[in-house]
Automatic annotation (TrEMBL):
Segments forming domain Glycosyltransferase 2-like: 8-175
One Pfam family in the UniProt entry: Glycos_transf_2
Lineage: Bacteria, Bacillati, Bacillota, Clostridia, Lachnospirales
Organism the protein comes from: Blautia obeum
UniProt keyword terms in alphabetical order: Transferase
Name of this protein: Glycosyltransferase
Length: 307
């Protein structure tokens, strides 16, 4: 691991105080970072003092209409010459100083591992139900997933999150990297390709970031609509690998957990939230049947549809 060069890549939009905290924590990692490449949307919102404070930063500006979940990250990857590229979002904070070290370790333990993603821990203001959801999606046990795991994990075999994930650059380039046009889910689309090509995706439970959201019911609808669109647009990855089973399992486990914790008054909210998620997902999967006005109401990413 000593000779491995690591770049961290972060898309940013109107970064606030927490962004400075993120950069500060990255500079104190046990594993040295070569560069932090920031893909900033709208230069007007950028604080130039950050570049003065942190010489490790390399900042590239783009217009809002130019941003794309896949293309922006693909552009950043072209700017990197590192062996390992760690992609993060601006609202994810390293939980300790070993984040990068543990990601690199998980990524390099086997030559067939092409990606490794971190465990996401809840914020202090995270809701009770969302805390359980975090533990369901990001357990405390590491795992390595291959094509052989599809019958066991289904769609979760492809799961990978660019909230914090590391990629081997040589494999990334060999497979063509992130799709250049993606409404969402560019990480799972690439991870799916990795799995199909015989590579592995590692979940590194000891690589931890603090990241969670308390989405409203409608925000869940919009988010899952975009998720459904991404799957509909990439049948070569997702066709024949149903997603619904994992969703149903999460609902059942969450309800059982709430009963055990004697918080049954939260159950109606879980059911309503789950209904919104599924309605959004189903609408997204069938977006080609919807009028444009309906699509623009359903989506979280209106810019994506401005073709």
């Amino acid at each position: 691991m000593e000779n491995i060069k690591v770049d961290v890549i972060i898309p940013a939009y109107h970064p606030g105080k927490e962004f400075s905290t993120l950069i500060e924590r990255l500079t104190k990692q046990t594993f040295p970072i070569h560069r932090i490449i920031v893909m900033n949307t709208e230069e007007t919102y950028w604080n130039k003092e950050l570049e003065e404070k942190f010489s490790i930063l390399e900042v590239h500006h783009l217009k809002k209409q130019e941003f794309d979940h896949g293309a922006t990250r693909a552009w950043a990857a072209e700017l990197s010459d590192a062996d390992v590229m760690v992609f993060m979002t601006q609202d994810a904070l390293p939980a300790d100083k070993s984040l990068i070290e543990n990601l690199v370790k998980a990524l390099t333990e086997d030559e067939k591992t092409g990606a490794a993603y971190a465990r996401q821990l809840p914020n202090e203001n995270c809701s009770f139900v969302e805390k359980y959801t975090r533990s369901f999606n990001y357990p405390d046990r590491s795992a390595v997933k291959t094509k052989d795991d599809l019958p066991v994990y289904g769609i979760k075999t492809f799961f990978c999150s660019n909230v914090c994930a590391a990629y081997k650059r040589d494999i990334y380039q060999k497979l063509g990297g992130f799709v250049r046009k993606a409404i969402f889910n560019e990480d799972m689309i690439y991870a799916g390709r990795l799995i199909q090509e015989g590579y592995a995706v590692a979940y590194a439970a000891d690589a931890k970031v603090i990241h969670s959201h308390n989405y409203s019911y409608m925000q869940q609808f919009h988010r899952n609509f975009d998720l459904g669109v991404s799957q509909a647009e990439h049948p070569e990855i997702f066709a024949g690998v149903p997603s619904e089973g994992e969703g149903i399992k999460l609902v059942k486990k969450t309800i059982n957990y709430l009963i055990q914790k004697r918080k049954i008054w939260l159950i109606p909210g879980v059911i309503l939230q789950s209904g919104c998620k599924y309605a959004g997902y189903l609408s997204g999967k069938n977006y080609r049947k919807l009028p444009r006005k309906m699509i623009l109401w359903c989506t979280m990413n209106r810019e994506y549809w401005n073709v």
